[in-house]
Amino acid sequence: ERDEDARERLLDVLLATTGAPHTRLLAREFDHESLHVRRFALGRVAALPDPGVRAAAEAAVAAVAARGDDADARERYLAALCATSAGSLEGFDACLAAAEDDWRRRGAELRVALRAARGPAASERGQDALREAGTPAARVAALNVLAACGVGDAALAVRPHLDSDDNTVRVAAVNALRGIVDDDPPLEDLPVFEAIERAKRWKTRELTR
Q1: pTM across the whole model
Q2: CA angle 203, 208, 209 (to 5 degrees)
Q3: Is the distance from CB of 142 to CB of 130 less than 8 angstroms?
């Protein structure tokens, strides 16, 4: 369909008529000849975490990687997101890059996927990214990722960042601890003063060892 409004209506119908019971059916389309079909199937399944599509999602990640520079950037991201939502770490690095690139726009869908991969393996990968982060933006991205997938000792890796002079890093550290320790959602747009006060309270709490 060439008309943009018509395409939007078709998309609305597809979204309304697919749900969690259809993830395995949609996974059959991960290798469809149409890029648009592949994108839709990957994105829809990524929003409905299902470990039963892990093999198909990992195959989609591999297929995109095999196309190299010719691969569609959107498909590459959606394949990574879908694999992560199925519990795989094959797309973890791409999700981390997306978190740094545009967390404000992609954060909600990344949180859904990363929470599905939550556990020691994903937590360690997030801590590695935090240790290796060379810029405030990279630290914020790693902290946002850990807020969704971090467990246990990840809280100890996060705590030093409560003392950051960069408020975006401080807020991300507060939110990471909220997710790791209390399984609470992030707080958006915290003012500097409130972020400092919350950071102070977190520094007094006993964290998992």
Answers
A1: 0.92
A2: 110
A3: yes
